[in-house]
What we know:
- This protein has two helices and 28 strands.
- It is mainly beta.
- The protein has a domain at about 30-55 and about 295-374.
- Strand 23 and strand 24 (about 315-320) form a beta hairpin.
- It is globular.
- Residues about 1-30 have low confidence and may be disordered.
Amino acid sequence: MYTDHVLRPAVLLMLCLSLVACQRDGREASPDRESDSQIVLSEIVRIGDEADGDTVVFGGIDGLAVNAAGQLFVGDESSMDISVFSAGGVLLGTFGSRGAAPGEFRDISNVLVGRNDSIYVFDSRQDVLSVFAPETWLFQRRIKVVENDSVGNTSNVIGITDLGPITLHRPDITAENIDADLFVAVVQTSWTGTMVRTLARLPDRELLLFMSPERTPALRYVPFGRRSIIRLSPSGKLYSGWNENIDITITSVDGDIVGSIQQLHAPIPVTSVELDAIVNPDQFGSIHKVKPAYRSFRVDDRDQIWVKGIDRGNPTVEWMILDSAGKTVGRTELPAKLSLRVIRSGRAYGSIESTSVFDPVPVVPTVVVYSVDM
């Protein structure tokens, strides 16, 4: 029971100091924050680090998948092949090559492991999903994703279900729709490449759309813009959210909403230094004063959501781990340039690379594997 009372000076001073500390940290004052367990991730494998004497060099990492034996399949955007590594990081071989013939790629967008550990590679330039045998990596067949005007072009494949692949679709940007709201559609696709049903439809990332002097559509990302994050969990559920807030919807592959996860967060203001760094700010009309609630998220094999915080210019970024009810079960710090790709069987797999061609300190693309102590 609470009653009105006057705060004593000492208590008031302690509260003020606590609030100031929280504001400096940019995080929400939470009574359970101190009790959140610190999740320890210990690096056990690193692949592609020339400085460490590694002879494997990636031109860029487009897709990383892991099978039941812990073998890694890494798509290289430069060589257009898939490198296979043992659970200990030893190169076992490669398959695929650049080209348009069966088993070849023009643009690797994602690498996935599906039923019975078969390997799936999606080529967005050909709209083709290639299937390779689990142990021999021999090409088996290709699935041509059929165009559907109601959802737009196929931009990626994010998962494999018993019914077929889960595909992402975005509309073409033309002079006619340049001022229209743009959406990304998540589609259950059949094994013959045809659309079965739309599972979700969310706003696409915030872009400034304008006509160039040549009267062709041109794009520029809105500074600190929001975007939709969409993941298929290992258990076959779709997690999607617009990163303005931590509010993630869970959908079954039948298209039914089966749950949601919310988490309060303290808005992180955009600094004056960051505002001053924007090129031609007048183009945007108005610019966000606070940053998105989070950068990205992944779902592990326990249906826990790993939410990557916003980069504050530090070498590391905090990740918050939520359970299926939205409760924080732990936090960890990982390199700011790390993208987690897979979290399963007590291991976390990710890649570290430059996030932009304008990165002042380019990073050599590297695969990193951690053991997870939870």
